[in-house]
């Protein structure tokens, strides 16, 4: 049976849920948009949303919609990484000059395109101009996810009967630890 045949079996509310999930990225919020939830407890909404997003037909439809969006988008992973790298490599010294006593902003027209893209906001306060750069921690986290740097490694083993020497040798060989 093809994916398209499975999708045609979705109800209008299920289809709405799939589209709302793509829009919000949150199954509970998508459930609220697709179904009448006025008298429902939050726990019930969360439970129903979880069941729905884990339904094979729903999951297949979400993947298909994501694939269509990706195909129709001209945004590539490389573009996203480039944008995030502007933020990660931003340095406050690119934006201000400090002569030992006063801080002065560098002229905005002297900023590179990458430096300008790292700025989240500029506003005037009662103390002067405030410049806020995008968050580096979040950007580093996103880059790591895109590049797969933080893929968790776990394994469960019963080492109850292993000697300390055997455990240490295993860890050394597995993790590459040692002098």
Architecture overview:
- By secondary structure, the chain is mostly helical.
- 54% of the residues lie in helices and 11% in strands.
- The chain is built from 9 helices and 4 strands.
- The protein has helices spanning 3-7, 12-24, 27-34, 42-53, 56-72, 77-88, 113-117, 136-147, 164-175; strands spanning 96-98, 103-105, 119-125, 128-133.
- It has a two-stranded antiparallel ribbon. Strands 3-4 form a two-stranded antiparallel sheet.
- Helix 2 packs across helix 3 (27-34) and helix 6 runs antiparallel to helix 8.
- The radius of gyration is 25 Å and the shape is extended.
- The model is unreliable at 1-6 (pLDDT under 50).
Tell me what portion of residues adopts beta-strand conformation.
5-15%
State the total count of DSSP E strands: 4
Structural class: mainly alpha
Query: If helices are DSSP runs of H or I spanning 4 or more residues, what is the number of helices?
Result: 9
Order of helices and strands: HHHHHHEEHEEHH
Topology of this structure?
Layout: H1 3-7, H2 12-24, H3 27-34, H4 42-53, H5 56-72, H6 77-88, E1 96-98, E2 103-105, H7 113-117, E3 119-125, E4 128-133, H8 136-147, H9 164-175
Antiparallel strand pairs: 1-2, 3-4
List keywords for this structure.
179 residues, mainly alpha, two-stranded antiparallel ribbon, 9 helices, 11% strand, disordered N terminus
Summarize the structure.
The chain is mainly α. The protein has nine helices and four strands; from the N terminus they run ααααααββαββαα. The N terminus is likely disordered.
């Amino acid at each position: 049976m093809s994916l398209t045949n499975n999708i045609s079996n979705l109800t209008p509310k299920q289809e709405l849920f799939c589209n709302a999930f793509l829009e919000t990225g949150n199954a509970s919020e998508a459930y609220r948009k697709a179904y009448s939830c006025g008298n429902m407890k939050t726990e019930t909404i969360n439970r129903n949303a979880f069941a729905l997003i884990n339904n094979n037909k729903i999951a297949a439809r979400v993947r298909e919609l994501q694939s269509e969006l990706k195909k129709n988008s001209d945004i590539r992973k490389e573009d996203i990484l480039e944008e995030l790298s502007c933020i990660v490599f931003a340095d406050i010294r690119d934006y201000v000059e400090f002569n030992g006593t006063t801080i002065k902003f560098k002229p905005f027209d002297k900023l590179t395109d990458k430096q300008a893209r790292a700025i989240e906001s500029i506003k005037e306060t009662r103390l002067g101009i405030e410049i806020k750069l995008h968050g580096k921690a979040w950007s580093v986290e996103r880059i790591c996810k895109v590049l797969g740097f933080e893929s968790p490694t776990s394994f469960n083993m019963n080492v109850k009967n292993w000697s300390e020497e055997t455990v240490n040798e295993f860890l050394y060989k597995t993790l590459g630890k040692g002098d």
